[in-house]
Design goal:
CATH class of the largest domain: Alpha Beta
Largest sheet: 11 strands, mixed
Number of domains: 4
CATH topology of the largest domain: UDP-N-acetylmuramoyl-L-alanine:D-glutamate ligase
Mean pLDDT: 93
Structural class: alpha/beta
Shape: globular
Number of helices: 17
Strand order of the largest sheet: 11-10-9-12-8-13-14-15-16-17-18
CATH architecture of the largest domain: 3-Layer(aba) Sandwich
Radius of gyration: 25 Å
Distance between the termini: 62 Å
Helix content: 25-40%
Length: about 575
């Protein structure tokens, strides 16, 4: 029997297993009786939790194809100690199942109890309880605690909290908040939604995998799609409305960044990063994305893609109380789900006669023509039409006016800075260049489908993959690229994204896949990095050509190169 601990981490918000804070273990195993492991985990969790003095805490588990997620709940002020306790419980389970000597779990539990009693922040726990009673949002990290959101937010060091009797609870207000998640399109959606809010004269803030921003002010660059980014944005005094991009990694590592939001959008669900954190199938990934529904009450709105089968299937598992608050969107008015929504008076967003249409309770609201929205590339970019539909549903849920929605859609994408790295267009000597971040087969397929509709004498494509993608993922994405029927295929190596692979490993796999797909060897080129690949592509391009550049890395450098040589 082999039992391997892959990772232990804190759960700070509602998560895939339950809604409690605590600690979670990612465990891999083989040749083990799963029922014995579960029984052992539950029994030893009860013993150790009682021994440390956490009498009201519990344990849970989630089994998957390659192992299990094992978790215990814990007081909010003691999550690091909970991680140590969870590892002790696992050690007891392993010893029991392998019939080896048990650790001195009583002594080890006592050590953790002493540490807990010494470090416990009872004032923090009392503040959280009082805030919940007053219905005031309380945000906590390792160093600070805040009450209220936006302009009303006030922050204290975690070791210098205010006396409860001094707090004027009525001074703390909330702001509208929306979650945006999905496999592809998340960043585009948060940016488009912010542009619509700006058209409504609302100072919207966004978190994303690229930056955290309020209005036109960038707070910081980097991946802020987790709880840390959400706290920074929600504590900012200028934030009047928040669009929070929540990515798969943050959801699985920590849980939801905040317990309640007013609306949520799931753009789509497609195979991506399978095999991490015990999420091995598309259905399990859909379950992960749908975690955002845990933050919605029965009066809040969940916006879903009726054209995405994984989303449609997972929606069947939702709490039935949410049925009446779902807003479905589709590029087809004839979609059966859209028709059902219309007949029942439900919320729906769809395309009719080339126009965006929103329906609710028998009220049909016609918005602008899809070709008037720059991000649709004159209606050729189906993926961005879907993104726009989802954002319309989200903004209607937040009661943003139609004129702001139309104005935001008309303006967003006119400048490359509106949506950096996503569908950016350049023109030079009758050569058209499209730059996009797409990095999985679902995203690549969407861009290829768009490029197929664009007239060109020849088509050239540059692409590359991170090393943490499985061989199967890389092969599928490469197969998607070949549907472009390009005249030149340039593979850009990504030395900053090898993630355990050898430098030549991915080029060999991609070249082999291209050759198996019937691509002649002379059409295949390899570049040292995306910038070199972009330069090679432009050097090979001729008037009338279309160049498609997938830039996972060096996007700014590629933009600077193209901006110097190509005028929009």
């Amino acid at each position: 029997m082999k039992l391997v601990l892959d990772e232990v981490r804190r759960l700070t918000g509602p998560n895939l297993l339950w809604d409690k804070p605590g600690a979670i273990l990612d465990v891999e195993f083989d040749s083990i009786d799963v029922s014995n492991l579960v029984e052992s985990w539950q029994r030893w969790s009860s013993k150790c939790l009682l021994e440390i003095g956490w009498n009201s805490e519990q344990s849970t588990y989630r089994l998957h194809a390659h192992g299990a997620n094992l978790a215990i709940s814990a007081p909010l002020d003691s999550l690091y100690i909970a991680c140590d306790l969870a590892e002790l419980i696992l050690s007891c389970c392993e010893s029991e199942l392998q019939s080896t000597e048990l650790p001195d779990w009583v002594a080890e539990s006592h050590k953790l109890k002493v540490l807990w009693l010494a470090q416990s922040n009872q004032q923090l726990l009392a503040l959280v309880e009082a805030a919940n009673k007053a219905k005031v949002v309380c945000l906590i990290d390792d160093d600070e605690v805040s009450l209220g959101l936006g302009a009303s937010s006030k922050i204290w060091p975690i070791d210098r909290l205010p006396a409860l009797e001094s707090i004027q609870w009525q001074d703390f207000q909330s702001i509208p908040i929306a979650f945006i998640t999905g496999t592809n399109g998340k960043s585009t959606c948060v940016r488009l939604a912010a542009a619509i809010a700006k058209a409504a004269a609302i100072e919207a803030g966004v978190t994303s995998t690229d930056f955290i921003k309020v209005g036109d002010r960038v707070i910081d660059y980097g991946d802020y799609s987790g709880p840390g980014g959400a706290r920074l944005l929600l504590r900012d005094q200028q934030t009047e409305l928040a669009f929070l991009e929540v990515a798969r990694g943050g959801l699985l590592r920590r849980g939801l960044p905040i317990a309640h939001v007013d609306a949520a959008l799931i753009s789509n669900v497609a195979s991506d990063h399978l095999g991490e954190y015990g999420v091995n199938t598309l259905a399990e990934l859909a379950e992960t994305k749908f975690m955002v529904s845990k933050a919605l009450s029965n009066s809040d709105v969940l916006v879903l893609n009726a054209d995405n089968q994984a989303s449609v299937t997972q929606a069947q598992n939702l709490d039935k109380n949410l049925d009446n608050t779902i807003c479905w969107f589709s590029t087809q008015e004839s979609n059966p789900i859209i028709q059902r929504q219309i007949k029942s008076g439900g919320r729906a967003v769809y395309i009719k006669a080339n126009k965006f249409v929103y329906h609710e309770a028998g009220d049909y609201q016609q918005l602008l023509d899809i070709t008037e929205a720059p991000i649709t590339f004159n209606g050729t970019a189906l993926h961005n039409i879907e993104n726009a539909l989802g954002v319309i549903g989200l903004c209607k849920a937040l009661k943003l006016p139609n004129d702001a929605i139309n104005s935001g859609l008309k303006s967003f994408g006119l400048k490359r800075s509106d949506n950096p790295g996503r569908g950016n267009s350049y023109q030079f000597n009758d050569i058209r260049v499209i730059v996009d971040f797409a990095h999985n087969d679902h995203g690549v397929s969407a861009l290829v489908e768009m490029a197929e509709k664009m007239p060109a004498k020849r088509k050239l494509v540059m692409f590359g993959y991170a090393g943490d993608r499985s061989d199967a993922d890389i092969i599928r994405a490469t197969q998607a690229v070949t549907r472009l029927q390009a005249d030149v295929y340039i593979l850009s190596q990504l030395e900053n994204y090898l993630r355990g692979r050898e430098s030549a490993e991915i080029p060999k796999l991609v070249t082999s896949t291209l050759q198996q797909m019937g691509i002649e060897t002379e059409k295949i080129k390899v570049s040292s990095d995306p910038l070199a690949g972009a330069k090679l592509a432009i050097g090979l391009a001729k008037p009338g050509d279309l160049v498609l550049l997938f830039t996972l890395d060096q996007r700014q450098a590629v933009d600077e190169f193209l901006s110097q040589h190509i005028s929009s």
